[in-house]
Amino acid sequence: MAESAKRAKKRRIINTIYEAFTKYKQCLVVKLENVSSNQVQTARVALRQSKKGFMIVGKNTVIKKAIALRGKEPVEEDGDFDVRKPLYTQVNNLDKISGLLKGKVGIIFSDAAIFDLKPIIEGNRKPAAAKVGMTAPIDVTIPPGPTGLDPSQISFFHALNMSTKIQKGQIEISKDFKVCTAGKKVENSAAVLLQKLNIKPFAYGMEILWVWDNGTLLTPEIFNMNPAEILGKFKSVASKVAAISLATGQPNALSLPHMIVNSFKNVAAIALQTGLKFKLLDNLSTGAAPAKTVAAKKEEPKKAEAKKEEKVEEPEGAADLGGMFDDF
């Protein structure tokens, strides 16, 4: 019965993966090393509630077998032929995923954007203690300050060549002391020291390693870019392609609008110099400020009328000159 249950579970996982490659065009390989089952379950629930996809965690051999079956068309001799035949569609480069299934990993099927999935997948990180023999993901340095330990344990710090002093009845570290180096294994003395000081220097959670997008394998350098960075790079490349196309005279979707505008400028310049006229040029020359021209024409008669009605005022005494010019 136990063996039959395992076989049924294995078949269910295979058929689920088989169907997922028909429904989804994107598959994520996530790292699960040092990740608790509670963290995995939290991510599963979040994906299900957001309706952005689902996660499968199982033996790599089972997942690889499912991928191998999905890569070839089902035949009638297969046990689940009736289930898989309606779901079959050709999918390219599935073998690339199989080569990435090493160590503790899981796969997530989703068509959502990666920057929307990252908070769900990588946001749940928990602090962890340093264990003997594990590889340190980061450098760990203990800063100066009180340790909270009584002076009877001073010999332990001396054995590690740490600079310490007794201050207010407790051991105090005098200088920075590096206990772990990124990429190297944690030694026994470092693990004990961090445990004594109640320091959990590391934080672990799921991490997206690879993204398989409709047959194309994306590296972290690509899928970690946000939309603003992608748009900026696209604009930069488009500008360079347009410049090269204009310089070489090769028309394409990027350079053609510039070519048309530049050609029109040349034609317009020749027409203005030779006195030639055509409709587009007339619209360009007369349509620049028609409102101002009409308004100016309307204002001219009003100004003329105002001048006619205006009377010239004579200074006082100018009309009465004592009759000195009456005889003339």
Could you give a short account of the major beta sheet?
5 strands, antiparallel
Radius of gyration, in angstroms, nearest whole number: 41 Å
Low-confidence stretches: 288-294, 311-328
Rounded mean pLDDT is: 82
Supply the number of helical segments.
13
Q: Spatial order of the strands in the main sheet? A: 2-3-1-11-12
Q: Give the overall shape, derived from the CA principal axes.
A: flat
Q: CATH topology of the largest domain, what is it called?
A: Alpha-Beta Plaits
Question: Could you describe the 3D structure shown?
Answer:
The chain has 328 residues and is α+β, with helices and mostly antiparallel strands. It has three domains: 2-125 and 205-223, Ribosomal protein L10, N-terminal RNA-binding domain (Alpha-Beta Plaits, 2-Layer Sandwich), CATH 3.30.70.1730; 140-201, Alpha-Beta Complex (Molybdopterin biosynthesis moea protein, domain 2); 228-298, no CATH class. Helices cover 46% and strands 14% of the residues. It has helices at 2-23, 37-50, 60-70, 81-84, 95-98, 114-122, 154-159, 188-196, 220-223, 227-248, 256-274, 279-286, 290-309, and strands spanning 26-31, 54-56, 105-109, 126-128, 140-142, 145-146, 164-167, 170-173, 177-180, 202-204, 207-213, 216-218. The strands form four sheets. It has a five-stranded antiparallel β-sheet, with helices on both faces. A three-stranded antiparallel β-sheet has the order 6-8-7. Strands 4-10 form a two-stranded antiparallel sheet. A hairpin with a 2-residue loop joins strand 11 (207-213) and strand 12. Helix 1 (2-23) packs across helix 3. The longest helix has 22 residues, at 2-23. It starts with a helix and ends in a 19-residue tail after the last helix.
